[in-house]
Amino acid sequence: MNDKTARLRPATHLPETPTSLAVPSTSKAAPQAVTRGFALLPEVVDVHGASFIVGLAPATLNTLRSRGGGPPYLKLGRRVFYRAADLRAWRDARLRTNTAA
Asked: Is 0.85 topped by the overall pTM?
């Protein structure tokens, strides 16, 4: 087998279950990253993770943060983070049943 065929072969050493997405823990005290085969969302996410949770573009979240009206955020140095619980609460507070104000 030459190098070209080795690069074209599929990776058969990787498991096909969703648990392959989890990062193995090096400490016994660390919380488990997988529950029932699915990776858990972290407690704190960056702008891209927040955009996935609330369904808005990262640029929209950046604009809402600078103008006001967006979800609460954490500023650690120059980096911006959002707590997943705050994002879900902010998203759920905008639930509407009709188009009237």
From this structure: no
- For 39, residues 6+ apart whose C-beta sits below 8 A from its C-beta are 18, 21, 22, 33
Angle among Cα 55, 46, 34 to the nearest 5 degrees reads 85
pLDDT per residue as tens digits for the range 45-96: 999 999 999 999 999 999 999 999 999 999 999 999 999 999 999 999 999 8
Q: Tell whether the torsion through CA atoms of 46, 88, 17 and 10 is positive or negative.
A: negative
Q: Is the dihedral of CA 67, 72, 74, 80 positive or negative?
A: negative
Q: Are 95 and 88 in contact (CB under 8 A)?
A: no
